[in-house]
Design goal:
A hairpin with a 2-residue loop joins strand 7 and strand 8. The protein starts with a helix and ends with a strand. Helix content is about 30%, strand content about 35%. The protein has two domains: about 180 residues, Rossmann fold; about 60 residues. The protein is of the alpha/beta class and about 250 residues long. The longest helix has 14 residues. The chain binds S-adenosylmethionine (SAM). The site of S-adenosylmethionine has 18 residues, from loops. S-adenosylmethionine (SAM) binds next to loops.
């Protein structure tokens, strides 16, 4: 089931304001150029920031996402007409259709079930042309990032801008189960005082698990970065940014 943060139009409408950083977008844009990818598929494209930027950079881009509310925002973005938008999941990827598949914004962690995740990798393999690449990131559970997720440090306040509503957001309780972290995201719209509380779960896979799953799906890891400046992955890296080549 897709998280309400992406399916509720009111929450989808504030996604870009809450996630305004460019560091991941810039890395994936540079990567698409370095790899010489003519056709790129952005799986879990959300509001389409990266997909539109890739298209503006000259790549042929398909953005795939199951959340209609996110795609509505993507389709309204300047340059959106250059992108092919698909409401769907990995199952809907066209076979042998692209040179690079990206999953950004920690989309890899929304697949809580391991068999579902392995299936996604198999579909990505099917969608790629031989020698094509898969790039995505996942947070390293060894650094236990959830221990730094709390109401005080996550509290953020957003003023009205571009006709958007003023709201506050923060993380409430965080529950840690085996390999899965579930947190409550709070959003309070200031004009009405309405508060939406949404539970989100993320799967934290260890580096070795991801490498084994990639290998089993027919990928060889060619790079593992530990930060958005492409620093080498180390024991203290919160991010694991994988680039893998399809056989
Ligand atoms: C955190 S957002 C990331 C969006 C975008 N990639 C970004 O970096 O801003 C996670 C996205 O994954 C999408 N998603 C959820 N379940 C999915 C699935 N089964 N297959 C593909 N995408 C999915 C959500 O709809 C949402 O747009």
């Amino acid at each position: 089931m897709v998280d309400r943060h992406y399916t509720d139009p009111r929450l989808a409408a504030i996604y870009d304001r809450e996630n305004a950083g460019r560091w991941d977008v810039d890395l994936y844009l540079a990567l698409a150029d370095e790899l010489g990818a003519a056709a790129v598929t952005d799986l879990g494209c959300g509001t389409g920031v990266l997909a539109c930027d890739l298209a503006a950079q000259g790549h042929e881009v398909t953005g795939v996402d199951p959340a209609a509310a996110m795609l509505d925002i993507a389709r309204a973005r300047p340059g959106a007409q250059r992108v092919t938008w698909v409401e769907g999941t990995a199952v809907d990827l066209a076979s042998a259709s692209c040179d690079l598949v990206v999953l950004t914004g920690h989309v890899a962690q929304v697949f809580l079930d391991d068999e579902e995740w392995r299936d996604v990798l198999r579909h990505v393999h099917r969608a790629l042309l031989p020698g094509g690449y898969l790039a995505f990131e996942s947070r390293d559970p060894a650094t236990r990032p959830w221990e730094r997720w709390d109401p005080a440090s996550s509290f953020a306040t957003f003023e009205p801008e571009d006709g958007g509503e003023a709201f506050d957001s923060w993380l409430g309780s965080v529950e840690v189960g085996p390999g899965i972290v579930t947190m409550l995201g709070h959003t309070r719209f200031r004009s009405s005082g309405e508060e939406i509380v949404t539970a989100s779960s993320l799967r934290f896979r260890a580096r070795e698990e991801i490498e084994a799953d990639l290998g089993a799906a027919g990928f060889a890891v060619c790079a593992l970065y530990g930060d958005w400046e492409k620093g080498a992955f180390s024991a203290t890296s919160e991010e694991m940014i994988f680039v893998a080549r399809r056989d």
